[in-house]
Amino acid sequence: MENEDAIPIKIGVMDSGMGGLSVLRTLLSLPYRAHYVYYGDLGNAPYGERSTEEVLALTKNVCSELLSQKVNAILLACNTATSAAASELRAELPVPVFGMEPAIKPALSAHPNERIALLATSVTHREEKLRNLKLSLSAEERIVHLNCDGLATLVDLGRFKEAEILLRKILRPVQSEGIRGLVLGCTHYVFLKRLLLSVYPEAILHDGNEGTTKHLIRSLQLERFPGTPGFELFFSGREKGSDAYLLGKRLLHENE
Length: 256
Hints:
By secondary structure, this protein is of the alpha/beta class. It folds into 2 domains: about 10-100 and about 210-255, Rossmann fold, CATH 3.40.50; about 105-210, Rossmann fold (3-Layer(aba) Sandwich). Helix content is about 45%, strand content about 15%. The protein has helices at about 20-30, 50-70, 80-90, 105-110, 120-125, 130-135, 150-155, 160-175, 195-200, 210-220, 245-250, and strands spanning about 10-15, 35-40, 75, 95-100, 115-120, 145, 180-185, 205, 230-235. The longest helix is centred in the middle third of the chain and has 18 residues, at about 160-175.
């Protein structure tokens, strides 16, 4: 890492595991001299099958770790953590907190008069944040909820053949009904785009990564810092140089 005094802005990026790397990958492709500290909480994954209270506590712990690294802002690059913790963290933390939002609005616009499907974890599906978003869009009747518990864990472990088997089961109902618009409501699922399209070639995929990165760049005025970004990776419960770090680096450099 370059000298800390020479880094104009340091941004913490957190996720329950590998999923947030899909957002970090987008940020690293942009010409801004920010330094990103990524923390994947693999030691406590998956978040999506825990209680809201557990997710809130775990997310707070990760944010404390990131604050100890003297970050200037934190991105919850995890839909589950955003749903459970973003509001409280924004009220408590001394730095700006950004989160994820499923790309439901653009998906509804892209598929007028059609139903769309939301692929997400149990926590994301049940939280008030999603209910409020659907109410604001008057979209309750147009969204089919697909529970994808277990899928993020397979991404964290790099078990993509098993992920394909699970995806076939998850997607069967929407395929049979001809619902083509699929919203990826978990950052892990961005790494499954090619698999999703191999299972369901007629699908049109929507994810919130681009919207989130644009919002973060605009809010933090990153255009003030032209240059090459840098990053470092941390995974809880994993040794440096372990398979988790190797998988993380591979995912960062994969094309969608």
